[in-house]
Specification:
CATH topology of the largest domain: Undecaprenyl pyrophosphate synthetase
Number of helices: 7
Number of domains: 2
Order of helices and strands: EHHEHEHEHHEEH
Structural class: alpha/beta
Number of strands: 6
CATH class of the largest domain: Alpha Beta
Function: Catalyzes the condensation of isopentenyl diphosphate (IPP) with allylic pyrophosphates generating different type of terpenoids.
Largest sheet: 6 strands, parallel
Helix content: 40-55%
CATH architecture of the largest domain: 3-Layer(aba) Sandwich
InterPro entries: UPP_synth-like (IPR001441), UPP_synth-like_CS (IPR018520), UPP_synth-like_sf (IPR036424)
Strand order of the largest sheet: 3-4-2-1-5-6
Strand content: 5-15%
Family: Belongs to the UPP synthase family.
Shape: globular
Subunit structure: Homodimer.
GO molecular function: ditrans,polycis-undecaprenyl-diphosphate synthase [(2E,6E)-farnesyl-diphosphate specific] activity; magnesium ion binding; manganese ion binding
CATH superfamily of the largest domain: Decaprenyl diphosphate synthase-like
Distance between the termini: 31 Å
Length: about 240
């Protein structure tokens, strides 16, 4: 394969990569630009990463786009983020569909503006039968909130007599999370040098490999993605056992 910056084993590319896209605002501030400009450039990075994941054979890509805590940001910034989401879907949907990408969402999108909900529903419906890269957008998503909702739903099923307490285990809990359509991530990447989860996929990342990039999200490109995958392939994943 051409344009490999690192000696990646294409037979051992992580099936599922999850990314905490961090640093848009700081990237813009360092250039004396408004935070919204950083988010706009960050959308271009999404385009690059989606294409490269498809090219390398990654099966699932989950992007932390908007957390349940992000509502605390200034209204102008939140509004800009929602506008960028709509614009991204409108501009990119045909290309994504052409490239066989399937779009999913995780999180409670019912709290998003109606324009966002309509674009997301349209994108998911249009790409539902695609068999290539599965791209999940985490929107109004929080790992704790997802777990709370799962516990509530499972508890109601116990009360209704549909299941017993003894039926509750890892698989049942996983099946009640909004991430149930994707396997647990093999690799989670966070940009901007921060080293925390920020309420992202708390259940699903139990045995994931972590990679922290010191650059901000707008500077993350195909080479940086390959660098993260190369680092992942150098590790020995034992899942709590011995090899």
């Amino acid at each position: 394969m051409e344009n490999l910056f690192y000696d990646i084993n294409l037979d051992k590319v992580p099936a599922h990569i999850a990314i905490i896209m961090d640093g848009n605002g700081r990237w813009a501030k360092s250039r004396f630009m408004p935070r919204t400009y950083g988010h706009k450039v960050g959308v271009e990075t999404i385009r690059k990463v989606v294409k490269e994941c498809s090219r390398l054979g990654v099966k699932y890509l989950t992007l932390y786009a908007f957390s349940t805590e992000n509502w605390k940001r200034p209204k102008e910034e939140v509004s800009a983020l929602m506008g960028l989401l709509v614009k991204y879907l409108r501009n990119e949907l045909e290309e994504l569909h052409k490239n066989n990408v399937k779009i999913l969402t995780i999180g409670d999108i019912s709290k998003l503006p109606q324009a966002c909900i309509e674009e997301l529903d349209h994108a998911k419906e249009k790409t539902k039968d695609n068999t290539g890269l599965v791209m999940s957008l985490a929107l109004n998503y929080g790992g704790r909130n997802d777990l709370v909702n799962a516990v509530k739903n499972i508890s109601q099923e116990v009360v209704d007599g549909k299941i017993s307490v003894d039926d509750i285990g890892d698989d049942l809990i996983s099946s009640h999370l909004s991430t149930k359509e994707s396997p647990d991530p093999d690799l989670v990447v966070r940009t901007s040098g921060e080293q925390r989860l920020s309420n992202f996929l708390l259940w699903e990342l139990a045995y994931s490999e972590f990679y922290f990039a010191d650059i901000h999200w707008p500077d993350f490109d195909e080479k940086e993605l390959q660098k993260a995958i190369f680092a992942y392939q150098s590790r020995d994943r034992r899942f709590g056992g011995i090899k």
